[in-house]
Amino acid sequence: MARKTAYIFTFLLVFVVCLPRIQSAGFPCAPSQFTCANQRCIQEKWRCDDMNDCGDGSDEKGCSPMTCNTANDFTCNNGRCIRKSWKCDQVDDCDDNSDEIGCPTRASASCPPDHFTCANEQCKPLSFRCDGEDDCLDGSDEQHCSNSCSSNQFRCDNGRCVSLDFRCDQEDDCNDLSDERGCVNKTCSPSEFTCSLSGRCIPARYRCDGRNDCMDGSDEKQCQNDNDLRA
């Protein structure tokens, strides 16, 4: 019995291995199969399914144009059917880009009134316009800028425009300290050091620590012995 089973198994194995060679030698495919031009046999249902199952495209030749379901599908220029929801999704689902032709750009959806529309269709706050920073990442928010800043901005000595809220906030927003000049200095506590230009208060331990904490370098000037100054 075991010998008979082994014989049957060997026969089936040889049949499966040799079948493609037999078919390629000119033997007909099964009735439920389609014979490709390269003599390969594929399932008949794979015929005209918009997929190159034969490997030589012969299973897709002479096919009638596919009729898409107009209620749910979009018909591509190449006859392929895709879901309507895939139309204008910024992905070439048709493989000929016909599902992305004539689509409205995101720029057509205007930004809020207090925002600026970048060339790459991003929306940025109007305060970012002409502030010396490439907030759009394409430079469009810094193009066609005049030398004058808007009414809600402060013009730095370097020509940069920053929000008026940044004026005298003890931060160098202009990158030249001009937004911190002429500010009314507040009185720092005994445990703090008063920066020269901005009047900013920093912890006294930051004095002569090798770091420019004042942004104007005044906390690192006239330093003698670090250990004596920090004591």
From TrEMBL:
Localization of this protein: Endomembrane system; Membrane
One Gene Ontology CC term in the entry: plasma membrane
UniProt xrefs under Gene3D superfamilies: Low-density Lipoprotein Receptor
Claim: Transmembrane is one of the keywords in the record: yes
InterPro entries registered for this protein in UniProt: LDL_receptor-like_sf (IPR036055), LDLR-related (IPR051221), LDLR_class-A_CS (IPR023415), LDrepeatLR_classA_rpt (IPR002172)
UniProt KW keywords: Disulfide bond, Glycoprotein, Membrane, Receptor, Repeat, Signal, Transmembrane, Transmembrane helix
Origin: domain of life: Eukaryota
Topology within the bilayer: Single-pass membrane protein
CDD domains: LDLa (cd00112)
Broad class of where this protein is predominantly found: membrane
Cleavable signal peptide: 1-24
Cystine crosslinks: C29-C41, C36-C54, C48-C63, C76-C94, C88-C103, C111-C123, C118-C136, C130-C145, C149-C161, C156-C174, C168-C183, C208-C223
Protein's name according to its UniProt entry: Very low-density lipoprotein receptor-like
Organism lineage: Eukaryota, Metazoa, Cnidaria, Anthozoa, Hexacorallia
